[in-house]
Amino acid sequence: MRLLHLVGYRGNSAEFPENTLPALRSAIALGVRFIELDVHLSADGVPMVCNEQQLARVTGAEADDSDLSGAQMQALDVSQTNIFGDKFLGTLIPPLTTALRLLQGRPEITVFVVLGRASIARFGHSQVISQVVRAMKPFKSRCVLVSKDLATVYTARTRADYPVGWILSAYDGHTQIKIEAFKPEYVFCDLELLPQGKPLWKGPWRWAISHVADIDTALALATRGADFVVTRNVRKLGEAMRAHAATRAAHIASMTTANAVSQSHGISRAEVIAHVTEENEQTVVRREMSTRASPPVRTDVAPRASSELITFEFDLDVPVPA
Prior knowledge:
Elements: E1 2-9, H1 21-29, E2 34-41, E3 47-48, H2 52-59, H3 70-74, H4 81-84, H5 96-100, E4 110-115, H6 117-123, H7 125-136, E5 143-147, H8 150-160, E6 164-167, H9 173-182, E7 186-190, E8 206-210, H10 215-224, E9 228-231, H11 234-265, H12 269-289, E10 317-320
Parallel strand pairs: 1-2, 1-9, 2-4, 4-5, 5-6, 6-7, 7-8, 8-9
Antiparallel strand pairs: 1-10, 2-3
């Protein structure tokens, strides 16, 4: 058995400004064990949790933000008023060291730290990696260095001794050759880049598919070989996963009970299931007749055939038969 994991994209960025402390805290509170965030180096070499697109939004597309110090970047409001209005006014860019302190006392959480391309272009991958690794040192065992730049990923592995992830810009034969030669621990790929229905390339790496919004897509990706689904919709997808887990667990329990009863009483499992289903339906009807009763939850209905092989756990991980 292997697991499919949920990754919070820039925290819980569907409900809070992305790459901010509120977004990260929310994702952790919702039970997410894996978080992806972006890192951009300030002019004075301080790793900050943001990306060049965020900076462009708050400083203006024509402004030169390359000379902003860490202190100046920490004073920038990134509340995304275009999405959230005034709800999060005053939400600022955090240093990476501050964001990683959220991991204190949470050894189950892993952070995918995505190195910004603008910083790499300005400072070079060696300096960027050096500064980021210094900030991550107290949490080394729970951080993964990720980049779109393959040279940066290679340097991170050889010089920093960290697990690494490569973000693909294409899903084609040339890219496959590079992956098979380099063998990163993680391969990130946008959902839109994947061909329809085909299994993912097999290897020692683990697949993380980005921009997954719903449980049906997550289930389909699991059957194709995905190990992680990356989403902004942490709450929505997490709740769907838990509901799926509850349904599947109840189905397995019913099948186990049916097998035990059929063996002890010498009747077929189908007869036992039919009897249990009838009793459950009668119970549902009786409950619906009471105005004070809570809405019933049907636990006797098996999931669709396409999701038979996958069960979501409460911690947002999915056992998937190998």
